[in-house]
From TrEMBL:
This is Helix-turn-helix domain-containing protein. The lineage of its organism: Bacteria, Bacillati, Actinomycetota, Actinomycetes, Kitasatosporales. Residues 359-416 form the PucR C-terminal helix-turn-helix domain. It comes from the Bacteria. Residues 34-173 form the RsbT co-antagonist protein RsbRD N-terminal domain. PANTHER family: CARBOHYDRATE DIACID REGULATOR (PTHR33744), PUCR FAMILY TRANSCRIPTIONAL REGULATOR (PTHR33744:SF7). It comes from Streptomyces sanyensis. InterPro entries: CdaR-like_regulators, PucR_C-HTH_dom, PucR_C-HTH_sf, RsbRD_N_dom. It holds the Pfam family HTH_30.
Length: 429
């Protein structure tokens, strides 16, 4: 006779309760219910660390009651041969939902049911004799099917709550981010949302490059973009403390990283660590990232975000590579980005080189290479003599010799002003 756990029809053979040594298993477990419940509770505390941190009152009341309900559910299966119906499953979902609300990890909740099943199985098998092999096999199968259903039900109840909670948390974060970027009474807005603001935010303006998958044949660019942004958010959250607030699109956006001290106390070590985080994000996501960064108290985030965006744009326009960039690195270029007659006059010094990108490019790389002809040649993959020739032609055209100490500052300023005007023709940073 097939004693597998199925939904039996009226025509199916009647269920014969399993027994060891002639005694039905449900009778053995029912008689030992209080003792068995205590044993499962003790094993749970010993095997699943998070349960050992629960208050004694909760362990002795609610947790014990849930364990007993689980055992009674299994007793019903032993009597009928049928898995629990919707009414019993709903009780399990509600219990899992409570654990989700309490912040108990889902793996701990699932392990709790496995621990209970193992204890019950061990109790039953202790009564099995040589002639009970067929019943032992059916009992093991019964337990496995019960655990399978319990796992699916618990995950369903747990995930439903976590999704709802995550959605609410995301709405709160986005609301706080919007308030910070808009300015005004940001602390009151955060307080109304139940959100605690840190002493300071490290404000990142991110420029995100294109991932190869976003333009690959046969790959959905929408999915590739979402995957890229998910990886960036996950890595940023993983390597920073506190609630990161971010608004990222395919090309970039703003991220606010909470910091434990005020903006005046942010030091080189803090920026170095954040630079490492940005580099890690770039590697994991497989994209180039240029980030302008500054620090501000919550009340100053709006202006800090604009400054960080300006720093990123200046770094990009002046040929800086991927990575984290601070105002201190681009002070000259930033100042020359500001519109005015001085900037335009400096930019005009490079006008003779317009239409000669090889001369402009060589001049720019020469300055970025510390005035080293050899390094410039290596970076441009040309002969050093070609570097000399181009620098000489640029000097003849502009009257400024980049190899002369007296002209280097003016060349650097003129080239920065030229790049600034080219990238911001409307006269704004």
């Amino acid at each position: 006779m097939d004693r597998g756990v199925t939904e039996r029809t009226a025509e199916a053979a009647a269920w014969e309760p399993l027994s060891f040594g002639g005694v039905p298993l449900q009778a053995r477990l029912a008689a030992a219910l209080p003792e068995l419940t205590s044993a499962v509770l003790a094993r749970l505390v010993a095997r699943v660390p998070v349960y050992g941190t629960l208050p004694t009152e909760q362990l002795g009341s609610e947790t014990r009651r849930v364990i007993e309900q689980g055992i009674r559910t299994f007793l019903a299966i032993l009597r009928s041969g049928e898995l629990p119906g919707e009414e019993r499953l709903q009780v399990l979902r509600q219990s899992a939902a409570k654990r989700a609300e309490e912040g108990v990890p889902v793996e701990a909740v699932i392990r709790a049911y496995h621990v209970g099943a193992q204890e019950c199985l061990a109790r039953m098998l202790s009564h099995a004799g040589p002639g009970d092999m067929a019943a032992v096999q059916e009992t093991a199968l019964l337990v496995l099917r019960f655990v399978e259903q319990m796992t699916a039900t618990v995950v369903e109840g747990y995930v439903a709550v976590r999704h709802a909670t995550a959605g609410e948390e995301q709405l709160v974060r986005q609301g706080v981010l919007t308030a910070l970027l808009d300015g005004g009474d940001v602390r009151a807005g955060a307080r109304d949302r139940g959100f605690e603001l840190p002493p300071c935010y490290l404000v990142l303006a991110l420029g995100i490059g294109l991932h190869p998958d976003e333009s690959a044949d046969g790959v959905s660019p929408v999915i590739a973009t979402k995957r890229k942004l998910r990886r960036l958010r996950v890595e940023l959250e993983r390597h920073t403390d506190g609630a990161v607030l971010s608004s990222l699109g395919p090309d970039g956006g703003i991220a606010l990283v909470p910091h434990r001290v005020g903006p005046g106390e942010v030091g080189p070590g803090d920026w170095q660590r954040l630079s490492g985080v940005v580099s890690h994000m770039s590697r994991v996501a497989g994209v180039e990232i240029r980030a302008g960064a500054t620090a501000a108290a919550p009340e100053g985030v709006r202006d800090a975000a604009r400054l960080a965006q300006d720093i990123r744009r200046v770094a990009t326009a002046s040929g800086r590579g991927p990575g984290l960039h601070l105002l201190s690195e681009v002070l000259l270029e930033y100042q020359l980005m500001q519109p005015g007659p001085a900037r335009d006059a400096l930019a005009d010094l490079m006008r003779p080189l317009e239409g000669r990108p090889e001369l402009l490019g060589t001049l720019r790389v020469f300055l970025q290479s510390g005035l080293s002809r050899q390094l410039t040649a290596e970076r441009l993959r040309i002969h050093p003599n070609t570097v000399d020739y181009r620098l000489r032609r640029a000097a003849e055209a502009t009257g400024l010799d980049a190899t002369s100490g007296s002209d280097v500052v003016r060349v650097r300023a003129a080239l920065s002003a030229h790049d600034a005007r080219a990238s911001c023709p409307a006269g704004t940073v």
